[in-house]
Write a structure and sequence with these properties.
- It is built from three helices and no strands.
- By secondary structure, the chain is mainly α.
- The protein is elongated and about 40 Å long.
Length: 67
């Protein structure tokens, strides 16, 4: 898997995902809060499966994990 999630995108995904999961565990939001696991995982692994389908790459020019 090539990296297709850039640094700012990654930070936002991890923050939003963590907040949603925390709210779901508190019971503040319903079960839909567990959907926060998706942006959390894509932020951690730096790969979003929807990005290649949409032709998006926020990781930079090369798209490899070392950049």
């Amino acid at each position: 898997m090539k990296c297709n999630v850039g640094n700012i995108d990654r930070i936002l995904r991890i923050l939003i995902g963590a907040i949603l999961v925390a709210l779901a565990t508190n019971g503040t939001v319903g079960l839909w809060g567990w959907l926060g696991l998706i942006p959390l995982a894509t932020g951690i692994f730096r790969f979003c499966p929807a990005y290649p389908l949409l032709g998006i790459n926020s990781c930079g020019i090369s798209g490899d994990k070392n950049s």
